[in-house]
Write a structure and sequence with these properties.
Layout (H helix, E strand, L loop, with lengths): L3 E7 L4 E9 L2 E10 L15 H18 L7 E5 L1 H5 L3 H12 L3 E3 L2 H13 L9 E6 L4 E7 L2 E8 L3 H8 L7 H15 L3 H7 L3 E5 H13 L7 E2 H14 L18 H14 L4 E5 L3 H10 L7 H12 L4 H18 L9 H11 L12 H5 L1
Parallel strand pairs: 1-4, 4-5, 6-9, 9-11
Antiparallel strand pairs: 1-2, 2-3, 6-7, 7-8, 10-11
Helix pairs in contact: 1-3, 4-11, 5-10, 6-10, 8-10, 9-10, 13-14
């Protein structure tokens, strides 16, 4: 159990548990649980959590407790986000929730949530040293971060999420232009106070994380609306399909899962507003999110290097590659490449890096079989 740690995210849409294994100061996700609690749907206009949503939450945490029964307290961190930030009866619910989970639960501020999201996302990016705009649409709030090399420069949290917007603008599941327009305008009003500062800071890549971004990516790609990630053109095509469906009941899209269906319209409207207000054309998706950020924060150590270097080094060790031989092959190959293309002599050049990684891994097939080892390596 000494190499295992766990994070629990009490989100406004889902409660999620992530268990990770620590190997060479890296965290490898081991297993996890997800419960679609929809806490935000139980929040009344006067900001009180109803009994039904509380019971769903407690039941989910009891199931998490079964997985975490043998974990020491120092190896577990549970955080709660927007709905429990605003619910007036959150203190009473927390007493029941902590009893069910068996561990303390911390309600974190919006900017702390944004910081942890960025830590999680940065650890999944191929090159965390590029300047990133990270957007995380949750159930009750949306976080925005501009960061580079694990250091966040701008952190904001806005009170708009896929659960709240779906309930407010699409309450009966009907889809029409007026509802989309009202939802998008409301989201853009929230964003106008921060968008200028974010555009001034700039970014090299826009990254989406968590459930809404993941759902939209899967819908766009599986329905042939985007060749990769989220695009402005793809969002427009998807909007046309949603309007043509006219109702949640009529939506038939590959990649749209049943637990995401009730909140997809609100999440889509927020994403559409973000693309327009931040003048985005393309966004990639990252599996890293709040849970992974909590795990790395719990570990207390961040990777200030390219994740691909760490992965190659781990493979070299795991498969018993002859390190001296691999380095000689890599040096020779890179020297030859530099004679053909002088600019690749720079160790940071993409071609130089990919060739070196390939050379370091060229013999890992030997651990599978000496015969035709190069095929296993390939």
């Amino acid at each position: 159990m000494q190499d295992l740690i766990a994070a629990i995210d009490l989100g406004s849409n889902s409660f999620r548990l992530q268990v990770g294994r620590i190997v060479n100061d890296q965290i490898y996700p081991l297993d996890g649980l997800k419960e679609a609690v929809r806490l935000a749907a139980g929040l009344s206009p006067d900001k009180m959590l109803d009994l039904a949503s509380q019971q769903r939450g407690v039941a989910a945490l009891q199931r998490f407790h079964e997985r975490l029964r043998d974990f020491p307290p120092t190896r577990v961190r549970a955080v709660a986000t927007n709905t429990l930030r605003v619910a007036k009866n959150a203190p009473e619910f927390l007493i029941r929730a902590e009893a069910a989970l068996g561990f303390p639960i911390e309600i974190i501020a919006g900017r702390e949530e944004a910081r942890l999201i960025y830590v999680g996302v940065a650890h999944t990016l191929p090159d965390p040293h590029r300047q990133q705009l990270v957007v995380d649409i949750g159930g009750g709030s949306t976080e925005f971060i501009v960061g580079k090399s694990f250091e966040s420069q701008l952190l904001e949290s806005r009170y708009m999420g896929c659960v709240g917007y779906s309930l407010r603008y699409f309450p009966d599941g009907r889809i029409d232009k007026r509802a989309f327009k009202e939802a998008e305008l409301a989201a853009r009003r929230e964003l106008q106070t921060i968008s200028a500062a974010y555009r001034e800071a700039g970014w090299e890549e826009a990254v989406g994380s968590s459930g809404t971004a993941k759902a939209i990516v899967e819908i766009l790609e599986q329905n042939g609306l985007s060749k990769g990630g989220i695009t402005r053109e793809g969002l427009e095509k998807l909007k046309a399909l949603l309007l043509r469906a006219g109702s949640l009941d009529n939506i038939d899209l590959a990649g749209l899962k049943g637990d995401r269906l009730p909140v997809i319209l609100g999440g889509f409207a927020i994403m559409s507003a973000i693309f327009k207000e931040f003048e985005l054309e393309h966004m990639v998706f990252s599996e890293g999110a709040l849970r992974l950020g909590v795990l790395y924060d719990l570990l207390g150590r961040y990777h200030h290097h390219d994740l691909r270097d760490a992965t190659v080094s781990a493979f070299v060790r795991r498969y018993g590659v002859d390190l001296r031989q691999a380095q000689q092959v890599a040096d020779t190959a890179c020297h030859l490449l530099a004679q053909l293309e002088p600019e690749t002599a720079d160790p940071e050049h993409d071609d130089h890096r990919f060739l070196r990684w390939a050379a370091m891994l060229h013999e890992i097939g030997i651990s599978v079989a000496h015969s035709s080892y190069h095929k296993h390596s390939a």
